[in-house]
User: Fold this.
Amino acid sequence: MHLKLALRNVRRSVADYSVYFATLTFAACLLYAFTSSTDYLLALDLTPDQRAIYEKAGGAMQAFSTFTVLVFAFLITYANRFILRRRSHEFGTYALLGMGGGEMAVILALEGTLVGAGALAAGLALGCAASPLFGAAAAFVFGVPWKPVLTWSPDAALWTAGSFAAVMALATLLGMRTMRRKSLGELMGAARRPDQPRGLGRLTGRAQLIVGIALLAFVWGTCLLQPALFVGLMLPYGVVAVLGTGLIFRYTATRLPDFLRRRCPNWYWTSLHSFTLRQVEARVCASSNAMACVCALVAVAVCMITTGLAFSVGLRESPLGSGETLAPVAYAGIFYGATFLVTAAAVLALQQLSEAADSLSRYRLLDDLGAPRAMRVAAVRAQVGVYFVAPIAFALVHDAFGMLLVLFLSLALGATQLTAIIGGTVGGTLALMGAYYLITARQCVRMLGR
Assistant:
């Protein structure tokens, strides 16, 4: 019975699981593609010396792929939270009908297994089908001739399947634990419950701003004054940067509407500007955390892609550089940058679709009150735009400091064309996130602007 109910729930919740499924599929595809990068190179026409060098690079790629698993663990856990929030009312109905927490946990585990297995199969198939493209990227970075070759790596597939299963199991267990700990009232009212500040978010507004600025000053100062220490402890410093950024976003979201009400009343009460700002205020805790994570991911992505291109393209034209020696690092940088950008885009999409689903009743009320459709659509686009513009703009502030470190490392190694590489990376990132904004805004308009 549990399996039958899980199958029916997955079929019935296609709209919810489509985003979740796509997120898991891309995660599996990218994890497989990165792990099998050495196989792409070995499938090309290489000299014996080149083949020996790139076989040794396989160990470095495997080590780097471990960190990729951690990134996707964060993404999958975040996506799983999106599904749980969207379906809390449904599980509350099960509890109201007498179903116990253990039975609901079994159903949730079966649903996660079904969706995860399908996403893993689709991701591996997509990774294999796109192997010529991934091979082209690897050949470009490593500086070897390329030809379109369809490759399949059993070892990479096994590593991906094992890592993916472990992450999915962890996310499912956390979800089961969350559902079992919630009361019936919490399940039924999850979509209407306002955010509750936690940790540093409980500080007063001014204290949040002061602590946030202090944390970022500490990170930026270390990056400029102690670059070796910053590189060695990049992950802890990244966590500190996320905390500081989140506090500043939270302070801004709570204080800006009041500032605009007092200083710009004509603009504030025009159209649906006040409604849009209240929408941002209503989810300030969850949204500030999501935007802080996206900000950090985009900032790191720009720095890593720039570094990877500088180590590959720039060093080829420098008599001081060795492309073959730094090629694994360059490939890892470019791939991680692409992975972080995909993760950032997925987090923004999931967060905005979740908020759109929670805001459906409010937009229906606007319709009942006579707000024109064009005005409601503009409000949706503005709301989505805030969540895209704010983290990307602040990510560029982070990159202003990070790029100084990248420039120092690149110039020390004799890399060239840094200005063009930085401009191209930033421009490509903005274009990608802009395209993703249009897609996300269009989907939210379909949900809310009807």
